[in-house]
Structure formats: structure tokens, C-alpha cells
Write a structure and sequence with these properties.
This protein is of the alpha+beta class. The protein is about 25% helix and about 15% strand.
Length: about 425
């Protein structure tokens, strides 16, 4: 297995985006998101890093951005609150914070999603929209419940834990999510430039305008419960258990291999903690094989460590469609610590918060003029690891909300 780390040497500064939003960075982005001969790259203060050997690596489909204003403080305020949320009384979480109507795309979710063909208790998720509590119109919320769910916030006056440990939870969630959305909007302009340079039929400003105007923004505060050494044949069906029984030797045992089905995903990086006390654990004490993996454009599985002061952004399937395959969705998974790695008896949990920035559910998923559906499908990476795009994007011009519904059914519908 190849092991390549995104390090500080390959990460630059966000303020280059802020200072020069109209500069054409398309060729550099192609080295991050595009063809198999390009090199890993990232945004730097004065330019992209040109010292990275183009022959030494394949694009990872992910970049990391440093010096995003307010990002580090926002992340540090919000991520640790996942511990208190994940350890609330399961009956409270189930009765007050779950939303089956939206296929669990608002509020709390644990054991609702599939990991393979079994309920996924390896992680708990809290979904929220940082832009608005009531996205879309009433008709849109009725017709596309998975795309436009209303927020379900914990009542911070209801219990002592909610008052003390989840104080300012709503404000912290919205602050971090808005920063992540705004950064994606800036990057979208440059992806537009790349697509314009490569595809004649691409519409100028398509992605930038969609990202700027959208109300469909979904943060996902993730809490990965400690893995034990039991067989995955004995998945615990009690939501009150804080230790999961996903088989620790499975490669993708914290989140299985998948593509993000939407437009662009912003990543907060991660935080490892003691599951019992909530105390942070330095990454030097964590199994070095644990964490986020992506499939590069040569099909290799690559471990990615996002520096603590950086935000990362990766490509979803919709942008692969809209650009005619100029950029490809990023297959990724999360691997838990190996059961043989010694943590002196400490039960290790992981926290992260991706933010999915998408467009309205009626957005038409249409490949550029001159691009065929086959070109879009064939641009996919690691197709043996993820649900086939052609099984969900069943026609050119399909509405995004319908595509999203088909995708969620693959992960949440136990009849499929």
C-alpha cells in the first residue's frame, strides 16, 4: 500500500484566493484534481508550489488551504462538542434529534446508514445547515425532504449536560459551516476556469454561481466510536453502546469507501480524543495507519493527514458530471486504529466535520455540450470501490434532488 501524506510543504495559504480571485489558477488545480500525469498541489501565498515533482505522484483529488480567516478558532470551538453530543441519552437523541423523513439528513443519526450490508454503529452523525434553519420553499421541502430538511437543534436548556458542555453549540456549528461554505465559493471560480479551458461547452461561472447562491449546505459533525476486537458478525444493535463492534482489521472500518454525491466538500480535519473523558489525544499517540484515505488518479489508496491549521476541499460526483469528467470525484474512506496498536487501554474516538456545499434539488445534472455520458462515467476513479455512478445518474439532465435520493437509497434503504 502506498502511503503519502499531505504535509505542510505541499500546503499553501488561502489568502492567495482572497487576494487574487480572478487570477487563472486552472492549470494548478488540474494537477490537484485532474488527469493521471499531474502532481499533487495546493494553493500557496504567491503561487502554487511548483517544486513538487510531477512524476512522483498522482493527483489526490483533494487540496488543503491554510490561513482561512477564523477557521482554526471556529473548528476548535465546535469539534470537541461532539463528545458530549454523542454521549447524550440515546432515547433523547432518538426522540428529539432524529429525522427519518429526511432519510436522517438532519439532526442525529447512528445505525441508520449501511456499512457494507449491516447497520453502521461505528459512527454517529449530527447534520445541520449553517446557512438557514429552513432552506428552500415549503413546496421544495415537501418534494425533496432529503435535500431541504429543517434543522433539529438540541435544546441547550433541557439538561445540565446540554447547558454546560453544549453551550453555544448552534452558534459554533453555524460559524464553522459558514466559513467552510465561503471558502468553497472562492475555490469554485477557479474550477470554473479549469473547465472553461478544457471543455468548449462549459458554461462560464456555472459552479461559482451555484455555490454562491445555494441554501443547500450540510455540515456533518461526525463522532467515530472506539473499535473493539469483536467480529463484525456480532454488530451491536444497542445504540447506547459507546464501543462499536466493526471488525478492526477491515480496511475501511470507520467509514466505507464512497464518493461524495454532491458538488464540493470542505473538510475540517480531525480530532482524536479519549472516548471516556473527552480529553484530546495527540496524533503521535494514534495508530499511524488510522485516518482518512483517498484513491489517487492511479487507483492507489493514499493516507491523507490534513494539518491542524488547514481546511481541505475535495470533489463530488456532480462536479465530475458538470465538467464532463475534467475533474473526478474523490473516493475516500476512514480507517480506525488497528486493534494491535497499544493505546495503554485508552478507548480512542475520532471527531471530524465535513461540510457538503451543493445546489438546489432542481439543478439539472447535464454534461457540457460535446461530452458524452460515457466520458463522464469513465472519468471516475476507483470505480470498483464505490456505487456505480451510472446506476444513479440515469439520464443526462437528471435533477440533482432525484440523483441524491437514489444515492441515499443505496446507503439507507434496507430493501435495496
Amino acid at each position: 500500500m502506498a502511503l503519502r501524506i499531505i504535509s505542510s510543504r505541499h500546503i499553501g495559504l488561502c489568502r492567495h484566493l482572497l487576494r487574487c480571485p480572478l487570477q487563472d489558477l486552472s492549470s494548478q488545480l488540474e494537477r490537484a484534481f485532474g488527469g493521471s500525469t499531474a502532481s499533487t498541489t495546493s494553493i500557496s501565498d504567491s503561487s502554487f508550489n511548483h517544486d513538487h515533482d510531477a512524476s512522483s505522484s498522482s493527483p489526490l483529488g483533494i487540496i488543503a488551504i491554510r490561513n482561512v480567516p477564523g477557521f482554526v478558532n471556529a473548528k476548535n470551538a465546535f469539534l470537541p462538542q461532539a463528545h458530549a453530543l454523542a454521549h447524550l441519552d440515546p432515547s433523547y437523541l432518538e426522540q428529539h434529534l432524529t429525522d427519518a423523513t429526511s432519510m436522517y439528513n438532519a439532526g442525529w443519526s447512528r445505525g441508520k446508514e449501511k456499512l457494507g450490508n449491516k447497520p453502521d454503529y461505528a459512527k454517529g452523525s449530527y447534520y445541520f445547515n449553517p446557512i438557514t434553519d429552513t432552506p428552500g420553499t415549503e413546496d421544495e421541502r415537501t418534494n425533496y425532504p432529503a435535500s431541504y430538511p429543517c434543522n433539529k437543534w438540541p435544546n441547550d436548556n433541557e439538561t445540565k449536560v446540554l447547558r454546560d458542555e453544549l453551550r453555544h453549540f448552534r452558534a459554533n456549528a453555524k460559524n464553522l459551516g459558514k466559513i467552510m461554505h465561503d471558502t468553497v465559493v472562492l475555490l469554485a471560480r477557479h474550477i470554473d476556469n479549469l473547465a472553461l479551458r478544457k471543455v468548449k461547452g462549459y458554461t462560464k461561472g456555472l459552479l461559482y454561481n451555484a455555490m454562491k447562491e445555494t441554501e443547500k449546505v450540510k455540515g456533518r459533525l461526525l463522532y467515530y466510536y472506539p473499535l473493539d476486537e469483536q467480529s463484525d458478525d456480532t454488530i451491536n444493535n444497542g445504540a447506547s453502546s459507546t464501543t462499536t463492534t466493526a471488525k478492526s482489521s477491515s480496511f475501511d472500518n470507520w467509514i466505507g469507501w464512497h464518493n461524495d454525491s454532491g458538488f464540493l466538500t470542505s473538510l475540517s480535519g480531525d480530532l482524536y480524543i479519549n472516548d471516556i473523558t473527552g480529553t484530546p489525544i495527540h496524533k503521535s499517540q494514534i495508530d499511524p495507519t488510522a485516518g482518512l484515505y483517498v484513491t489517487d488518479r492511479n487507483g492507489e489508496s493514499i493516507k491523507v493527514d490534513i494539518p491542524d491549521d488547514c481546511m481541505a476541499i475535495q470533489i463530488g460526483e456532480v462536479v465530475q458530471i458538470l465538467t464532463g469528467g475534467v475533474v473526478s470525484a474523490t473516493p475516500h474512506c476512514v480507517r480506525g486504529p488497528d486493534s494491535n496498536f497499544s493505546n495503554d487501554g485508552v478507548k480512542v474516538a475520532r471527531i471530524s466535520c465535513p461540510c457538503f456545499i451543493d445546489s438546489k434539488p432542481t439543478f439539472a445534472l447535464t454534461a457540457p455540450d460535446g461530452c458524452t455520458k460515457e466520458q463522464v462515467i469513465n472519468a471516475g476513479i476507483g470505480r470498483e470501490k464505490v456505487p456505480p455512478l451510472q446506476d444513479r445518474w440515469v439520464e443526462d439532465g437528471m435533477m440533482f434532488g432525484d440523483f441524491l435520493q437514489k444515492t441515499f437509497e443505496r446507503y439507507y434503504d434496507w430493501k435495496s
